[in-house]
Amino acid sequence: MAFWWTLLVIGFAYAICRLLLMLIPPNVPSIEVDASDVMDDGNQTQENSYIYIPPRVRTQQQDKRVQCYEPATMKYLGYFPALSRDEVNDRVASARKAQKEWAKSSFKQRRLLLRILLKYIIEHQELICEISSRDTGKTIVDANMGEIMATCEKITWLLSEGEKWLKPESRSCGRATLHKKARVEFHPLGVIGAIVPWNYPFHNIFNPVLAAVFAGNGIVVKVSEHASWSGCFYVRIIQAALAAVGAPESLVDVITGFAETGEALVSSVDKMIFVGSTGVGRMIMKSAAETLIPVTLELGGKDAFIVCEDVDLDHVVNVALRASITSSGHNCTGAERFYVHKNIYSSFVDKISERVKAITVGPPLAGKYDMGAICTQEQSEKLQSLVNDALDRGAKIVARGTFGHLPEGAVDQYFPPTVIVDVNHTMKLMQEEAFGPILPIMKFSTDDEAVRLANDSRFGLGCAVFSGSQRRAKNIASQIRSGSVAINDFATNYLCQSLPFGGVKESGFGRFAGVEGLRACCLVKAVVEDRWWPYIQTKHPKPLTYPVADNAFEFQMSLVEATYGLNIWDRLRALVNVLKMLSEQNTPAKDNSAVDDGSKRAD
Fold first, then answer.
1. How far is CA 142 from CA 130, 190, 301, 362, in A?
2. Distance of CA 33 to the CA centre of its chain
3. 70 is known as an active-site residue
4. Alpha helices in 137-258 (DSSP H)
5. What is the pTM of this model?
6. In this predicted model, what pLDDT tens digit does every residue of 532-568 receive, in sequence order?
7. Where do the domains of the chain lie?
8. How far apart are the C-alpha atoms of 489 and 486, rounded to whole Å?
9. C-alpha 309 chain-centroid distance
10. SS (H, E, C) 184-210
């Protein structure tokens, strides 16, 4: 009894010590990042205070400049260079040189880097969100939810589990190699390239950077021409943290430009991560095929949102609004097709229409608005085109949000949340990625019909299923072809950073996030060595030693059956044959010539 009491006391003391250690704040260095040129303090120079009118034709590389402006106000922010192929190659070469040094870093040093970044992000949330809002038009609430939370979650997961999943992993050796030890090692790939969109300018940079750097790589990120202003600030945070841990700042770089810049990046790195449209994804694959580098593609989505008749309707309406309207269509995992059971269809439409009519749209930093601007005028025009096509085919608009005070030069940048009914799959709105705050609602009668409708899409990124029966919801979700699914919620998969993220069909392939995404940043190397070196080594049996014996094939067949036979008696019989043939090979043959000579002499 005394023994168990002693163990209990020791265990309790250990738990108390762990708790006390948790109360001691970690000693994490702070970093200073110059933000003087991105702060809107009302004292901007005349050069950077005018209203910018973007060209109607897409800017080409020959312009040599990426012009930046606030979508919500059209206020000019400045420009960045559109890098040439040679300039991109130079940036990648610098990252490659830095990576050779960083590959030798310890996990302790890498964790310190992540803690420094986490500390800065938490302490500067307002700055980060305001910059994201100014560059993309989203509200700062949406920026915090989509940019800050997801990034902090990723850092926390890497701190907790990253080293565990990158350490060598033992594997079984199998029957034929019991005398061996097998393992998988995860080595850095080198320099990873990433091309990311404008919808989450902060997280879209940090997401690939965190995994790549923690795995020992360098990385060069080409940011969207529509989010270059924020991207070139965000990379300063990372480079300041690298300097604080004694790592070369060129390990991580952000480049700006158009198509030529992206093409140059693909042809010069060791792996590509691309987040964007399906069309550009195909071009990335074609370019990557020239150098045969691995590619991860997270492409378009047309996520289904299925609502069964046995749900808590108020809860589902709240989730549906967040799923479709978050970030004014900046949500890459947004719900774009709503399938509602016929028994609650009218109630669902009425409730969500009432809520949508109360949503206000306006400049996100000029007042309390629920929704900001669309990032590009082209995107706003595309949304209207999809709505017009649906209306022409018989659909009806039943509710739209209301506009606040819109800046005179930026009216075309805004698109209100819109509820549309009487839709069907002949409409472009139900087939093409909208990437905007449109809620097309269609009714279904049976679970099988809901599954059929959800799968009737060339995309397969994510989906959500709502039902009062968890079992029913899981059954429906299991039949839908998508890379992720949320049961009675939406897009929470992405906040769970232990899970891989990606799609199927025209939504791409490969995964980032989770163990799969982290190890995708690695050269996965299989290693086999002798378990009891040098005492037991692989030696070829005599029948298989060159020149092979006449019974070599018979010996090999018996060896296979002795090792893998399904019946124990067959295996024992085959083993006897193996031993018999080995003994025959080891028995010295009689010298017949000597016998013959002796006979002749006797004669």
1. 11, 34, 20, 14
2. 27
3. no
4. 140-143, 150-157, 163-166, 201-214, 228-244
5. 0.90
6. 988 888 888 999 999 999 999 999 999 999 999 999 9
7. 63-169+189-299, 303-496, 541-584
8. 5
9. 33
10. EEEEECCEEEEECCCCCHHHHHHHHHH
